[in-house]
Amino acid sequence: xxxxxxxxxxxxxxxxxxxxxxxxxxxxxxxxxxxxxxxxxxxxxxxxxxxxxxxxxxxxxxxxxxxxxxxxxxxxxxxxxxxxxxxxxxxxxxxxxxxxxxxxxxxxxxxxxxxxxxxxxxxxxxxxxxxxxxxxxxxxxxxxxxxxxxxx
Length: 152
Prior knowledge:
Elements: H1 3-6, E1 7-16, H2 21-34, H3 41-54, E2 58-60, E3 63-64, E4 67-70, E5 77-87, E6 97-106, H4 113-125, H5 128-136, H6 140-150
Parallel strand pairs: 1-5, 3-6, 4-6
Antiparallel strand pairs: 2-3, 5-6
Helix pairs in contact: 2-3
């Protein structure tokens, strides 16, 4: 897994000024579409929303990791948003999400690719220093550099 292959400048929102979880999911899906990873934004958003309805992807620490497997996704991809105002995300710790990573994986090869991405991110996101670097990143390229340095 190479972060530079998954994440594009088009799919990073720094800061994102959306007001709701639904708007955040829509914005990140549109960014993944602009990056060429998502072919049908509506179908992908529906998959991500359905997953959110099963249980929240707010993992705590001010972070959410919405994800979905969908026929609307052409290749595995990642989006990142740092919110101007933290969003209610029904997180495990009842704290709003200050940032979110969204994972998209094609339905056809929905094996464990998204789980590998999810595990790699989750392992890093529990560390205060890593989250602080992302919260203080000054540019989209800096976000990619931070993720590449920590995850690969």
